[in-house]
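U., I forgot to send this yesterday:
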Amino acid sequence: MLIGLTYDLKDDYIQLGYKAEQVAEFDSIITIDAIDEAIQHLGHKTIRIGNINALVDYLSKGNRCDLVFNIAEGLHGLCREAQIPALLDAYNIPYVFSDSFVLAITLHKGITKAIVREHNVPTADYFLIQEIGDSEKVNLPYPLFLKPVGGGTGMGITSQSIVYSKKELIHTSMILLEEFNQGVLVETYLSGREFTVGITGTKEESKVLAVMEIVVDPSSDNGIYSYTTKQEYLNFASYHLVEGEIAAECERVALDAYNALGCRDGGRIDLKMDGNGRVNFLEVNPLAGLNPIDSDLPILCYKKGITYPQLIGEILTSAISRITKERVECAC
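Result:
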């Protein structure tokens, strides 16, 4: 099988003048090399295509591949993660991970929370600020937590993300609206332990790989798993596998959210406890980072004894099985 690789290379965009935080979700060549090597180790041929501009050029020349391993995050708009999948849909080329619709709705944290809540998945109360005047309409108990509605990798999250008054709410929301040019999600602050859950598979075949707790040093942005903390995780964060009843509750919430949103092949669900110890859905990562050294999904796999090639293999197996089943159903 010929598998194309689509991705956004961080260095390419930095050379064009983008700031580091603007391209924080993009990948390094280390990630591309690791994925490429793992896929070839599984017996497939690969071709590195690159970002959406490179894919357009590739397709316009009549080139095709059997499957695309897509990890491109995109750059502009709230449908940026869905751009390459939508293009591949148009050409009827199958790809790994969630479809264009799921990637579009899950990038918007407010819509995501509405969907999981509709499916009875616990998640913190929230409000969406679209313009500064909306700050006056927030009617949630303090403290509150603010972040860009379509950000990732801790973008826009700092020590000022926790607010304790209307004045702080207005100040922080104004900064986020101006800097990121998108809505601001306001949530009831969850003060408990933080977890991330790795998942592979699709629908009834989805399964949890491991549950990992994230512990942040209080000296880093007041203990928040922020952009700075994530960039300097070796100094400010530690990761521990979780077992027992807490792990079981995390698994249940994560799988319910994953399937409610229609995720497929693999991803990561972030969770956090409230002050009463109840596990809440926080965010979904349908295109979870795959850097073999510092991405959360590979880290939790290593701690569980799952190698990087095994992780990529599980993701690919899910995609190939799903695509084969879809084709059989269409032929009937």
